[in-house]
Amino acid sequence: MQKKTILMIVAGLVAMMLVCLAVAALLIFGLGLKAESIALRAQNETARVQLEKISAELALYQVSRSGLPERLEDLVGASGGGHLKAEGLLDPWGETFVYEVRGKEGFELISKGADKIKGTDDDISAQ
Asked: Pick the residue with more confidence: 27 or 90?
């Protein structure tokens, strides 16, 4: 009888340990997803800030040169005004921003987002 009681106690303790491990795994997995979501939001916000900065540089270039540059690289260094560095033309995912001139006065800047594919839902753009 005493042996049976000890086995039941051990079995109960093992079951409790398994439940605790399962709960811990769920918490860790949940926190990992939350951290990933926070990181993605930070990258998206960084891309928006970069797009705003590049847009401002394009506006300055347009006023001072009476037109938009043919390429974003024309904004880099002293020839472009000196406010942007080459690495400033890369989004948080290491991709070059897409720059499209829309007529004489307009342009569109696009970050292809985390999936690095233009034309998908995660694209971030400025005009």
From this structure: 90
| pLDDT value for 92 | 95
Kindly state the tokens that stand for 9.
């106690």
Q: How far apart are CA 26 and CA 19, in angstroms?
A: 11
| Comparison of pLDDT for 17 and 73, the residue scoring more | 73
For residues 4 and 124, what is the distance between their CA atoms, to the nearest angstrom?
65
Separation of alpha carbons 108 and 126, rounded Å: 6
> What structural domains and CATH numbers belong to the chain?
2-126 (3.30.700.10)
Closest CA to 124 of 45, 67, 70: 45
Q: Are 104 and 98 in contact (CB under 8 A)?
A: no
| Cβ contact 69:89 at 8 Å | no
Q: How many whole angstroms separate alpha carbon 12 and alpha carbon 125?
A: 57
